[in-house]
């Protein structure tokens, strides 16, 4: 299976070591997920947005290209080709202020583009392989509070507002919650049990 991982954390996917202020539990999860997928003989492509210096801001010139159904730049064109070939797409990011960071939002704005990855006239996806979409997040908010108090805005935005709208039906959210309150031993336990 061809799997594309879109990883968004300022410390990058290399920050899996336990070094204070240079570590991200999300990076350790990314390492774990890649090991699982490679053990299943998946072909894995990692897009590490911060490491690749992806610019999430849409300029006026880029928007003009986007509106004409053209990739906004060579980096985005490369990402679009990877997604067109994917059988599984995994987004990995922390939840900040109840939604994704700007880098992931900018990735969706620029890369998941009209007339390239979905049709402009009817919103139907052009991802013919109907890839499974997995979203792996870390957050400090408890899951029940996130769903019932805040209304799960991430699910509304991604599952309903992006992927179901463009007829990508296979979506699963994998939240890892209250990571900041876990001990090192508890984090290692979460990693050992985590399955995608």
Automatic annotation (TrEMBL):
Give the record's keywords alphabetically. Oxidoreductase
| SUPFAM superfamilies to which the protein is assigned, alphabetical | Flavoproteins
Instruction: Show where the Flavodoxin-like fold domain sits.
Output: 1-183
One MF annotation (Gene Ontology) recorded for this entry = NAD(P)H dehydrogenase (quinone) activity
Show the GO cellular component annotation of the record. Answer: cytosol
Superkingdom classification of source: Bacteria
Q: Which PANTHER family match?
A: NAD P H OXIDOREDUCTASE-RELATED, NAD(P)H DEHYDROGENASE [QUINONE] 1 ISOFORM 1
State the family it belongs to: Belongs to the NAD(P)H dehydrogenase (quinone) family.
- Protein name listed in UniProt: Flavodoxin-like fold domain-containing protein
What's the source species for this entry? Answer: Loigolactobacillus bifermentans DSM 20003
